[in-house]
Specification:
EC number (chains A, B, C, D): 3.4.24.78
Enzyme class (chains A, B, C, D): hydrolase
Largest sheet of chain A: 9 strands, mixed
Oligomer: homotetramer
Structural class of chain A: alpha/beta
Radius of gyration of chain A: 20 Å
CATH architecture of the largest domain in chain A: 3-Layer(aba) Sandwich
Subunit structure (chains A, B, C, D): Homotetramer.
Protein name (chains A, B, C, D): Germination protease
CATH superfamily of the largest domain in chain A: HybD-like
Catalytic activity (chains A, B, C, D): Endopeptidase action with P4 Glu or Asp, P1 preferably Glu > Asp, P1' hydrophobic and P2' Ala
Chain lengths: 309, 309, 309, 309
């Protein structure tokens, strides 16, 4: 996530990374951080392409508080509306990445199930409704199982036929920070770049590769186990701090050096593991509810919720 | 089905329809009828494009006799091998039409599940196997659910990206004749044309629309209820024939006139109904076994069955 | 269905079958027929055990009119409330018979998915809600797949452990009459008796076998193909009536004789077929919506719909 | 797992825990450890009931080597055959605990899918086969979803109806030791006791509760995240050992004290997390293949594999 990249790059420094603008607000338990990467140098430093990244953090989402769920949904709707063209004539293709069978990776397909699909209704609905309805299509290619074809080739093929004006891609991400696990939604106007995601998406899903703008929505559904290890060591050392030289050694290391040490010692053993909440299945559904409703509201500003629910 | 069209066109005439060549053989309980439509006039008369149609009939497939299943599989393998290029370097995309949820329409997706998908294995398998392995991909776009995009647009998109040398499309058909219900497989080198199929596929899946040759495999999984009605009337009348004028009236009518009368009287009431065997679920699985194995054998002539089972 | 048995037994007679009381009302497009079988002789004549049968008919349910859907739901709620004990302390087990994979048989499991399950919430919900909440459990044993154990043995086992005060069993039925196909709901306080249902349930699901009262809810989701044949012959003959002796023969036969003739001529050929609407999948979902909501309302009269939706 | 309990209890001691007998053998990459707990005192010390526990460890199962898979399957078959009565007349119920939707918990249901179910075939198969066939039933009650009834009550109900002579229960376990994650199968003749398992099974599944002997097969499909933390700290400290006092502190602690410290510091934060391999979905299928085939072979010693595959 862009926000994590920025935290790592900035480290303990008080100043912002050059070429990066950050704005943080907080309301009703949702922390909204907007990160703007606007210079080429910053791009390299952050390891993320230039663009606008918004992260909505709700660290206690796992407690399943309905009010927080609603608050996150409302903020998300607002953020999406800002990124979407006001004109509802343009058609949108919602793509749920990830695969059906592995729960942490199933977020995308589950959001797709909740999307109000309207693109094929043109001839059927009354004119009155038709004029207020944005044409929306939605696919979850990962549910096709083993096809022998890259998921992203399938998407590219569908985009070339369905010719949407905009693609919104939903993906499950791996976070470094435990607090972001199923408590953090990132929206970026840059699309999805190689190497992100739980599974191996391999190719990018971007305006360059698809020919239309791509908004990416990412939710952390797993944490790398190495992050767990790092946090464990940090906290234990902290606890024993006063009389233990160990902490001094760690303290003298920059976070990236610390990570390097841990990677070296534990990497080969931990790299194939992932950490998820025990209630992952229910939490993925909660999050799919939030994303599905926010997307429907943002995509169909001129329909009333009662018209689709 | 081409064979039904020909039976209707030919009616009680002893002669073949002009521009159509028919060859029928029978072996181990499987009746193989090859219909060649080779003239434009015949095309119109038959309501089917020029091409090669092979129908394999096993009227007692519903009895679930393992020997018959094997015999059908073997004949099917032979017929497919004749249509496939000998060179196994060319890649093939198997497309299972139809949708997951409606049993009679689920044949395509169930066959796709059984296909040995190899297209993505290029880098992984040893050279020895790789040289004997045809690249095969397989998709069942109907399982994507409501997408707002025509299934056939999705296929066209996938074809344009995956660039197969040949497409094999599997579809569930509606038969007129009760004997063909889950006892008849049709292979055609003409692709799939509008109006066929259980659901409404609307567009064609042909070399013209996809840019590569399309082999269509169709299996009758439903019968129109009007066909049931027609057969019922015919047989009852037959039974009462000797002393009943009713039969005389029907007898004086051509089959198409008979059908017209029945359509007129029952059409609006029966047109929304379909007839399936009670054991449809098991029979669809049996047929998917047969098609899946025949396809794997025909597609991978140089692999041993033990290498994929 | 009891109503069909009564129609057959009564035939063209103007009088009611002795030992049977029938009351018919109509409101908002829903025809409600209450059949009371109260004498042993009537039991035999009707081929149905003594008890109270209510049939709600909506012949045009297949047109998917939302108002009719709502009207049927409301009437159903009323009828169920009359059969349920007012005291909400007693627990109820909802059983969805039928199996997942065969669409016409999937009604029961789909209704179960929509039931507000509360039996396990005792410790969790606030006292205020708890006092207004009837303990409801719900199972669909057919989704277990091939177990080697009779579905009804599984239910009996679950009943002996969960000890509900009442069982409500939902089943898909085969109708004789085309008008009842997905347009007719039957509620009976007699449980389910051998031989009913689409699949082969074999054993009864009754107060005798389970030890608690059983309310059966049945919906016709298929029609026997022989019924289609009968209707076809009847209507065609009718059409040709004036000048055709055939009609006279049929007219002189009682309906059961007619059926007998048709059975004899077509039976072996048609008996393994079933007739369903083409849109069976959507219609089963519509009906599951209606039954699910009616059951939730009837079972939880003291909860507000907003508390569970 | 019993083997983990024993390792903890024994600690660094060279002697075996009193009242516990342990035998370890190794063959073809599979380490077989038989733990016999035979005294009441040992029962308390180990926190496990008296009985026979066999653990088959294949630490590299995650590498998906077909030879190792076969070796594990063969050893498992042998161990199961020793526990099963030789007489194949006695019927067996295989119970797959765990739920469908959460991958690490789906092992039980996936094994059940692979079991050769024969209990209902009595009337159907020829006498010759019947005499060589043990009646086997199989259920996976977790796939029923939210029923409001405890899974184990459902099993008890089914057992009371189906009256098997033996129950074999398959469950997913949480391991402490990372090496056991999807590389360890435990067979116990003691049934399943409260507190085991990934989900909360709450009640025991034992001869006392079911009235018939229960063989439990457990596979570690998740590791507690606290175990990851412990291992991380241990290994990092080890690495820094020479010049760091931290290690001395940890070294002076007994393993249970170490664990206590870690629990205290990280417990509330880590307790809701679980650790799984990234390829969990494929690995669960691999393991289900192994268990399914071993069970079929052990349960049907007089059938040939070709008769069911």
């Amino acid at each position: 996530m862009a926000i994590e990249a920025r935290d790592i790059v900035r480290g303990d420094a008080k100043e912002e990374v050059p070429g990066v603008r950050v704005k943080e607000t907080q309301d009703q338990g949702v922390v909204v951080t907007e990160v703007e990467i606007y210079e080429e140098a910053a791009e390299k430093l952050m390891g993320k392409p230039r663009g606008h990244y918004v992260t909505l953090d709700v660290p206690t989402f796992k407690d399943r508080d309905p009010d927080l769920k609603r608050a996150l949904m409302a903020k998300l709707t607002d953020q999406l509306k800002e990124l979407l063209p006001e004109d509802i004539q343009g058609s949108v293709l919602v793509v749920g990445l990830g695969n059906w069978n592995a729960t942490p990776d199933a977020l995308g397909p589950r959001v797709v199930e909740r999307i109000l699909v309207t693109r094929h209704l043109g001839q059927v609905v009354p004119d009155d409704i038709k004029q207020r309805m944005r044409p929306v299509a939605a696919v979850a290619p990962g549910v096709l199982g083993t096809t022998g074809i890259e998921t992203l080739d399938i998407i590219r093929g569908i985009v070339s036929e369905a010719k949407p004006d905009l693609v919104i891609a939903i993906d499950a991400l791996a976070a470094r920070n435990l607090d972001r696990l199923l408590g953090s939604v990132q929206i970026a106007d840059t699309g999805i770049h190689p190497g992100s995601g739980v599974g191996n998406r391999r190719q990018g899903l971007t305006e360059e590769s698809l020919g239309v703008p791509v908004i990416a929505i990412g939710v952390c559904t797993v944490v790398q186990s190495i992050s767990i290890a790092q946090e464990a060591i940090h906290q234990i050392a902290n606890q024993l701090a006063d009389d233990v030289a160990f902490y001094d050694i760690l303290k003298q290391m920059a976070p990236t050096e610390q990570r390097g040490l841990i990677d070296e010692v534990l990497g080969s053993r931990f790299s194939e593991l992932m950490v998820t909440p025990k209630e992952i299945d229910m939490l993925i559904d909660d999050m799919a509810d939030v994303l599905g409703e926010a997307l429907n509201r943002a995509l169909q500003p001129r329909l009333d919720a009662s018209e689709w629910a």
